[in-house]
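Reminder to self: keep the SMILES exactly as supplied, no canonicalising. Ligand is zinc ion.
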Amino acid sequence: MHGLVLGGLALGLLALLGRPRAAPAAAPPSPAPPPADWPPLTPAERALLAKLHPDMQTFTRRVLEAARAAGLAPRLISGRRTCAEQNALYAQGRTSPGPVVTHARGCQSWHVQGRAVDFEIPGGKAADYARVGQIAKDLGGKWGGDFKGFFDQWHLEYHPGLTIEQACPDPDNCKDH
Ligand SMILES: [Zn+2]
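Structure tokens returned for the bound complex:
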């Protein structure tokens, strides 16, 4: 019985192998995908990337690559910050003039941890920012457009499995990395 079944299988396999291959269907013409480095990173963007945590560098490059493949061209405008820079931002709208732009002081910012970037899309609409945000989320990151009470569509961060409390147990004791 088993021999018969196996024999049948073998015959079936032979029949499959012997079958002439169907001619490949003509693929519809599609535009060539943009090169991964389109548009090229500017020297400022390269410098910004180089200062990020290595995981964040990889994540950011993958987001840029996927966004560019989708026809979007986000530019990096901000990356790692020093403790002093973050504290100056935190003071804004509190003890110094201007609108409140952050709820994080010192090492509470993923920017200080080297695990956040801000981007802009020249001429981009809200939906374009949301698309980049979705790409980032698909790659395991977080998008500032999802932040409750503080819409930050320009912001991406990547720190899987790490909370800011773990990364920054003492905001009064911020150390530059
Ligand atoms: Zn940011």
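Points to follow up:
Residues 111, 116, 118, 155 surround zinc ion (CB under 6 Å).
The chain has a mean pLDDT of 87.
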